[in-house]
Sequence to fold (470 residues):
Amino acid sequence: MLTKQVKQQLLSIVGPENYDDSKVECLVYSYDATPGYQSMPDAVIKPGCTNEVAAIVKVCNEHKVPIIPRGSGTNLSGGTCPTEGGLVLLFNRMNSLLEIDEENLTATVQPGLITLDLISAVEKKGLFYPPDPSSMKISTIGGNINENSGGLRGLKYGVTRDYVIGLEVVLPNGDIIRTGGKLAKDVAGYDLTKLFVGSEGTLGIVTEAILKLIPIPETTKTMLALYQDLDAAAQSVAKIISNKIIPVTLEFLDRPTLIVVEDFAKIGLPTNVEAVLLIEQDGPPEVVERDMKRMADICLEEKAVSVEIAETELDAVALKTARRTALSALARLKPTTILEDATVPRSEIAKMVRAINEIATKHNVNICTFGHAGDGNLHPTCITDARDHDEMERVELAFADIFAVAIDLGGTITGEHGVGAMKAPYLEWKLKKEGIAAMKGIKQAFDPNNIMNPGKIFAKESRKRVVVSS
Fold:
């Protein structure tokens, strides 16, 4: 509970209209998009500028009040659930696109700016911000930075970290620092910019970001390759990359996901095949034509039953939109939908998909699989009901097995969703005790009072590793 003294100090910073500790408001921000995680904060606060954020942090640090910086709450790892109470920090009032610098190809933004609003604004000027998480219609840039979000275009263009070149950050003691800038090169000291990206709000609060932009691609084409064999689809992915072709998008959907997505989107997706690859390429027209023809040939060589290139931009948009709706489509089936993101080397995708199916059978749970095949980032998604405690136990065991297999195949427990609270018990499997100790040392140096999003990334106890045959 916040004391009256702390509450009065916070009210004096932001005003009563930007502070709320009612049960209704606290309930609204007691959870995020992660099933099974809910905890009430003590209050919700909405700063209007960096100085207000710094003043709030100083008060919280003095009184050891937890702070949870929050965007739209679309994260899938329990990262913005206030598991230890405290103050949820919202950026609704800090949501401006401050500048588009066409000379330096940068955009300067506040953390509350919606991702799609940024993308749309820069494209009007013939520029391009590639990171495109599926939640981009509602997710914020600040949230993307905290989680180092990926997206469908990640194979060719990378993730959020690759486009953040400067930050303004409020440290846990209330100090304000700036890192990086509008620079093509900068090796002055430690790369603090990259350290804060993906730190899940545990090291500081991002209040402004300078983002790299690139020229918008001249043309784009999209195609769908259909398969009756999962191995053939996976082999196509590996062969496309080994032929030195890097498409923008190289997505995988299995048959259960296809059926549900088509029922939701109704755009004529095939539901009588075992898997599809959604492939997109962009660039100069002659390059796109060459690459699309070669990729189509590769898919057919690898036993695709058919390859269809979208005839119009509307058709292409429909295909990509359908892929982005996979989570929403699956969520219609049962009350609880748990979407994960185990990642493996591209060469191991077929093994990983087979292992996921075997694990689902082993634990008697329903798992659909889709994801970014081009970078090995698969999204096994379990359709379940949180009220069925027996099934939820089996679901948890199934995902533990999935993470174990991913690591055994040279992969990791998360490619883009972050660790948060959900995956914290598994992090030691990937990093070992020594890696966890190194990360805790960084956390302690920045945040000795552990006020910044406590209870995330570092589990109080790691889960026991079970050897799983893959």
